[in-house]
Structures are given as structure tokens and as C-alpha cells.
Amino acid sequence: MLPDADDAITRDGKALILAYDHGLEHGPVDFEPNPETADPTEVFDLATHDAVTAVAVQKGIAEAYYPEYADEVNLLTKLNGTSNLWMGEPDSALNCTVEYAAEELDTDAVGFTLYAGANGEVEMAEEFRRVQEAAREHDLGVVMWAYPRGQGLKNDTKPGVISYATRMGLELGADIAKVKYPGDSDAMAHACDVSGRTKVVMSGGSKTDDRAFLETVSEAVEAGADGLAVGRNVFQRDNPAEILDALEAVIFEDATVTEALEYTGETAVAGD
Fold it and tell me: Which listed residue, 19, 49, 88, 240, has the most CB atoms within 10 A of its CB?
């Protein structure tokens, strides 16, 4: 990683990345709870929220929609991704080059999924090396979706596995490593400690209620995480702008969960 390489997609050293690569990775099923979000303009509109430091999309979405938002939204182009129809060992096709993302899409940073532990880890790591070095030639930040997965892993959120993932981000040159929450604040703190100068952001995961989601985000940030990369827990909600208000308070303003819940209208529990 390089100092300041992620400046274009962070704010005061922290990140709130609005991830919208789900149409490829999971399919249209992810839009069913909030059908209008199948239209990318709905999510790009959300990405103009002050809390959002970047929107993460695949090449086709960037080509078709980002030009209208280039003055308001920072672009993180996801370079690889594979459909949920793929039934083999975890792998991820390279769908866009750094050069195309930089020169044709005018991206601010690039993202790459690496499935450590999968049978194709060696090839994916070699692809990441090419991506990372090309990104440096274009002065772009690099975000690693650090997702250990495969036949040899029975629990991909085990604390030691998540710490390994953040360390791989540092060792291989990622500026930011996106990882799943390892279950508790102590495990998250260790994962952040071993990542060195590579920033760590928590994956938003499947949709939960406002309180549970904000509690997990708050725990991660207090443990040393540098922010969040979230999709479903924002765009599947009926109150996406309100949850972004709450996330901004937690991530950038050190608000408590009780304070943040005031933005969502959810009643706080006494004693918080």
C-alpha cells in the first residue's frame, strides 16, 4: 500500500463505500426487497449523500450511469466478479482492466476480490499483482475484497481467518481490505492491528434491522476499522437515506448507536 493512495475514496481517513456489484454477484434477487433499486440511478442518487465516499460498481454500470454523476460521486470500479450461477470453487473473472477503468471510466480507485484458500488462489493472487501494479501507474487506490473461501475453509468468519485476510491485504499491497465481521470486537481489533497501514473496512452483509446493523458497525469502528463497504443494508431498506445519515454519525462523528438511531426513527432501548 502507499500513503494517501486511497484519498479519493476516503474522508478524513475513513470510508463509507456504497457497494452495488450485487447484480452480477447475486443476481436481481437482491433488488426484490426494494424493486426500484434495480435501476442503477436509484443507487447513484443515494451515492450523492455526504456520507458516501465512493460507489463500487462493475464496468457496465460505470459506463452507462457514472458520467451523469461524475461531479458528485467518487467511482470505485470493481474489476472482477462472477455470477452466483457458478457452482465451482470460488473464483472471480477479470472483467475490466485497470487501464480501461482509468482511461475510459475515469475511475477514482479499483477493487478486486481475492478468495484466499480457494483452489484458484495462486492465479487470483497473480492477477491481483498485475492489477495492483497497473493501478500504481495510474495513481489509483486499490481495494481488496479479502474473502477467504473454498473447500479448505469451514468457517470464513473465524477470527484467525479474518486476521489472515487483512494481513494478506497488507502483504499484497492493498490500500483497503474489505472483510467480513469476525464476530466480536476483540477479533476485529486484532484483524485491524495486523493489517498495518492497510485500512480495514467491514462488509455490510445481509440486511438486518437498524439497531443490530448500527451496533455491529459501531463495534467494528471502535475496534479500529476504518469504515464500511455496504450494499444490501442500505439499498434494501425503505429508509436508505436515513440509514446513511445514521452511518455518517457513527463512522465520521463518533456518535453512539442511540444517537444514530434518532436519524432512522427507531426507538432506542432504555439503558443504551
Answer: 19
pTM for the full predicted model: 0.94
Catalytic (active site) residue 178: yes
**Interatomic CA distance for residues 207 and 10, integer angstroms:** 24
Set 178, 180, 199, 207: catalytic member: 178
Cell of 262: 434518532
Q: What is the pLDDT of residues 231-270, one digit of tens each?
A: 999 999 998 999 999 999 999 999 999 999 999 986 544 3
Q: Which residues contact 226 (CB under 8 A, 6 or more apart)?
A: 10, 13, 14, 15, 176, 192, 199, 200, 201
Q: Determine phi and psi for 164, rounding to 5 degrees.
A: -60, -40
**Contact yes or no for 25/67 (Cβ under 8 A):** no
Cα separation, 61 vs 220, whole angstroms: 30
User: What is the amino acid identity at position 233?
Assistant: N
Identify whether the C-beta of residue 202 lies closer than 8 Å to the C-beta of residue 228.
Answer: yes
239 by Cβ neighbours in 10 Å (0-12 / 13-18 / 19+) ranks as: middle
| Average pLDDT of the residues in 24-48 | 95
Q: Specify the 3-state DSSP secondary structure of 76.
A: strand
Contact by Cβ (8 Å): 191, 159: yes
Residue 128 corresponds to which cell in the numbers above? Answer: 491481483
CA distance 121 to 124: 5
What is residue 247's predicted lDDT score, i.e. its pLDDT? Answer: 98
Q: What is the pLDDT of residues 203-235, one digit of tens each?
A: 998 899 999 999 999 999 999 999 999 999 999
Q: Which residues touch 264 (CB under 8 Å, ≥6 apart)?
A: 210, 239, 242, 243, 245, 246
Amino acid at position 131, single letter: V
What phi, psi does 90 have (nearest 5°)? -55, 130
